[in-house]
DNA sequence: AGAAGGACCAGTGGTCCGTA
DNA sequence: AGAAGGACCAGTGGTCCGTA
């Protein structure tokens, strides 16, 4: 029953994704989430009213009692994913939360979705994406992985990068931030610094570093990470290390 | 005086580009062409009226008598590049025409422009294009190479690809089409077939073929060439070799 | 306050079609 | 008729900000 839609991926403590897909993954791919999304999807930017109607129609039977839906609010809105909390490696999140193993698992899923998109493109003789593009996110929705979306994945790319490039440091950071009771945002911010240090050791070419790693190469280098590396390479003084704003438009001469 | 704006490139029979830049290339990069383009450029899509006004203002002194401008029409429109004709390797085009050596030279110039754009991007710590993108065409305009434009370059990419991948075949094709008095369009069409043959020999992966060649790797594989390779790999029968339409939207399932 | 993600927007790849 | 290229357009990368 606990099969994932993308492929049988063995991982523990995935929580929300699994809850929601119980009794859905098996049903021929026509689960509630997928219906919602596919129904609203064709070409037009979806208007708000549409969305709600669709959700009301096919809600309240399959997701009910599944473990975490229809919060206390008595409403019928589509559920968001539970927020992430800082967990140690291997630790399951408690309550209506998702852990960081689950976060990283989503990046692996995206990789598998990309591979599928690439295979389809090759079969058809179409141009073949080398990165996780909009097309891949659209495909994710289509196959029912509606908990994957672009803003979320882009938001945490550098955290996944640290996990790929230096798992020990990544694990240590998680433990330390968990212990200190820091929130996800603080942990996320803290992931920049060790990455910049890695870049420093390797000649500052963050693109080359991403591209040299097979699982990381499919992700665009986040703007802020690129900017931090650039700033640090030049006067490391002027930059308050991982300040929250290398930020606003380092005034930009365009052709 | 015959310096090019991009770099001193040694090539013969360039005709129009050289004519037009005589007395302009030396003037600090502020020649007529550049003024026209830079003037109309900032952000807004240029409206027609604007364009004409700008041209009228700074026309009629530098280009006049330069060798091929202000055709017989007595008007003040910006000149187009002379059309290409099929020339043999090394042959200069006569009259108000440009030869194929000049065409291929434009691809080399784009490569140099890309390298400049890449260097600037690296200096600034910005993302660095690996292909000839819109940014490069914009840069070409900015540095005064206004005879380079996207539709033209994309139109003939596969001709340049043949020149890169099999110069002998490319040369033979030029001679044969010149001899038979064929026009440029016919020559251009004929360039597909030997490319498909090359792809066939190398396992049909036209993207890999482009990427393996240092000068070709910076160009996007043209849609039609990709389609022809795909079609030929499958039932070679159903496709009238280089038909003018593999073409219209090989009905396309999108995610 | 902290976080998830729909939706927007500037600039892209691609090429049509009004122009000469 | 043959050809050059301005200009358009669907879908992209990037991320803000209204939402919960």
Automatic annotation (TrEMBL), chains A, B:
Biased composition (Acidic residues): 63-74
Top-level taxon of origin: Eukaryota
Region (Disordered): 49-74
Function: Probable transcription factor.
Subcellular localization: Nucleus
Primary subcellular site in the record, as a coarse category: nucleus
Organism: Hibiscus sabdariffa (roselle)
Basic and acidic residues composition-biased segments: 51-62
Residues of the full protein shown: 129 to 383 of 383
Domain Floricaula/leafy DNA-binding C-terminal: 71-237
Name the record gives this protein: Floricaula/leafy-like transcription factor
Similarity annotation: Belongs to the FLO/LFY family.
